[in-house]
Amino acid sequence: MRKFIHLFIFFILTGSSSILAQSISMSPTRLFFTGNPGEKVTQTVTLQNSSEKDYVFNLNYKDWIRDENGNKVYLDAGTSKTSNAAWVSTLENSVTVPAKSTKEIVVTMKIPADASKSGVTNSMLFFTQLPQQADQARIQNGIGIITLFEVGLHIFYTPSGNQVKSLDITNIAEVSAENAGNRKVAVSIHNDGNTINDATVEFELTNTDSGKEIKLPAISISMLPNSDQVVQFSLPESISGNFLGVVIIKMAGSNDLRVGEKNFKF
Fold it and tell me: What molecular function terms (GO) are annotated for this protein (predicted)?
């Protein structure tokens, strides 16, 4: 009897609103809840299916944190000290989005009566595609491949009194590397405010001998309060000489800037 091995391949998409070759889209991809302890608040997220087939998704929760490089690390729901996964619920545990249609999902957050009046919490609501018979790829060499997708919805809670947006540049340094052609400058940032902070980090170099300027591509970040992140900028391979490096942090929703400087010799 011939045995078939079914491989379930999951693609997790949490930073983009489009998946499945633009056939399924989510809006918004982040929900920001606020309120007082004991309150119940709701928001709505919409899934749009522009394809010719139905999609079925199972709903489940995870915690997540960012490492120092800004990458997400996923944890079991309820295990992070900033988890709000237990506060969140939906009317359905699975949803079907028919072809050429939209589906609205009401997300409810019940803020515990003993919730901190200053602590920001977060979690992720995953929409995991369930395998259907029509999803099976053509079986070759005894192996059947089913490609599945997960869409992650970020969920944040910020107490209503948290209004301070602030980021601090704690260090600027060249990253040592064995490969001289892969030199980088690392900018260490600390969120010393009390709310989630979306920002753009820019880095410019000016040759102090010639005056020539080098502006590197800006990098977007999103940081939880009391968190640290290192943003790395790749330097041009041919860079040589004495330079003044200037870091500029532009915070979303604020005209406040953070500026740091350091002299470099490459």
Answer: serine-type endopeptidase activity
